[in-house]
Design brief:
With about 375 residues, the protein is an alpha+beta fold. It has two domains: about 190 residues, no CATH class; about 150 residues, 2-Layer Sandwich (Nucleotidyltransferase, domain 5). The protein is built from twelve helices and 16 strands. Strands 1-16-15-5-7-6-3-4-2 form a nine-stranded mixed beta sheet. A five-stranded mixed beta sheet has the order 10-9-8-13-14, sandwiched between helices. The protein has a two-stranded antiparallel sheet with strand order 11-12. InterPro entries: ALP_N, ATPase_NBD. This is Actin-like protein N-terminal domain-containing protein.
């Protein structure tokens, strides 16, 4: 089965004024309604907004979570069959706090989405989309990353390795063996946002940043330059300095604290994943520290692995119904949706509300979270 992923920036802003014909397609023209307010989401918010952002590590009760969740699912309902099975998660730092709230959010089962297709279609209009969730599960991000890694890396005997995920909001890590996850090695701490904050404070000493928020500075951080006051400022050397400082003061101490010499002795490889794994300055520092005793490797397409891990967990809880499985990583910087490609695409957008199924009472299987049926997560 081939996995496909769709992604968009995890930012939004209240919509004002005319937004017609401002995008080429739905993914780049996301305009979602919550309560009585319309929001620009993702790339449309970055282009058409002034201060697009989101709360970092938002709880499921906050509007950020619902807006981004519905925007992600809107890009999925024409690619999967319903009712669907979905897996989501949180960093270890917030997992135990937010898990119950996320399960309550997903247990609504029926979701309606108000959205505007005039952003990318001359003949567009305000529409409603609908999707049903049959089964769901909430798991730690690093567990999903390890599942995604095992399904992606072409190593049949992949055991005894350390996985480290560099996210915008948090860095996650842990050691996996053939028997499962070693929980005492799991950690969650400051993500790339830490380095971006230091860069912002340094830039503010010499430049007027026009009140750019951390997501806008993050874009400049990735590009290696920032345009402000009609000048382009090269950030590559400054980026290297703050990333090395981040590794020295955050990452390296975490590796020393959570992994023993015996762990390192048994470890066959360290895999780096997450969007931050694209920064060569960071991965080179990792390689340099462990070059004498453990190989370090950047996983293929590291920014997609957590979402892919969620997808394969959804496949498990759906009783292997690939066409009904979705993995959704609502990241602090990027939201990534994964699904299995189908031979025949689903053509209902938005899907019609089925009369018979709507009238019938929900079966026990449709209202029981997956965790109550099968609590074993196979790594």
């Amino acid at each position: 089965m081939k996995v496909s992923t769709t992604s968009f920036p995890s930012v939004f802003e209240t919509a004002f004024g005319n937004t017609e014909n401002s995008s080429k397609d739905l993914l780049n023209g996301l305009k979602i309604k919550k309560d009585d307010t319309w929001y620009l989401v993702g790339n449309l918010a970055k282009r058409g907004g002034i201060n697009p952002g989101r709360v970092t590590n938002a709880s499921p009760q906050e509007e950020d979570y619902e807006i981004l969740f519905k925007a992600a699912m809107l890009n999925t309902i024409d690619k999967v069959q319903q009712p669907l099975s979905i897996t989501m998660g949180f960093p270890f730092s917030t997992y135990n706090i937010y898990k119950a709230a996320a399960e309550q959010f997903l247990s609504k089962r029926h979701f309606l989405i108000d959205y505007d297709t005039q952003t990318f279609n001359n003949k567009g209009s305000f529409k409603k989309g609908m999707f049903d969730i049959e089964r769901y599960e909430v798991i730690p991000e690093i567990v999903a990353g390890i599942i995604g890694l095992k399904k992606t890396v072409n190593e049949p005997n992949l055991d005894n390795f350390i996985a480290v995920s560099f996210g915008f909001g948090t860095i996650e890590g842990g050691m996996a063996t053939g028997d499962g996850l070693i929980h005492r090695t799991c950690f969650s701490s400051h993500g790339i946002r830490y380095a971006i904050g230091n860069l912002t404070r340094e830039l503010n000493q010499k430049h007027y940043l026009e009140m750019k928020n951390e997501h806008q500075v993050d874009d400049a951080f990735m590009k290696g330059s920032i345009f402000t006051n009609r000048k382009r400022i090269d950030l590559k050397e400054m980026r290297k300095a703050v990333l090395l400082q981040y590794y020295k003061e955050v990452v390296s101490p975490l590796m020393r604290k959570y992994f023993t010499d015996l762990d390192f002795e048994n470890c066959e490889k360290i895999y780096l994943m997450g969007g931050g794994a694209h920064y060569k300055e960071l991965t080179d520092a990792f390689v340099e520290e462990f070059k004498d005793f453990i190989p370090v490797e950047v996983a293929p397409e590291p920014e997609k692995l957590i979402s892919i891990g969620y997808l394969y967990n959804s496949l498990r809880i759906s009783d292997n119904k690939a066409q009904r499985s979705v993995g959704l990583d609502l990241g602090n910087a990027t939201s990534v949706i994964s699904y299995f490609e189908q031979d025949k695409p689903v053509t209902t957008t938005p899907p019609p509300i089925p009369g018979a199924e709507a009238a019938a009472p929900a079966s026990p299987a449709s209202t029981i979270p997956a965790k109550e049926k099968d609590i074993t997560i196979k790594l």
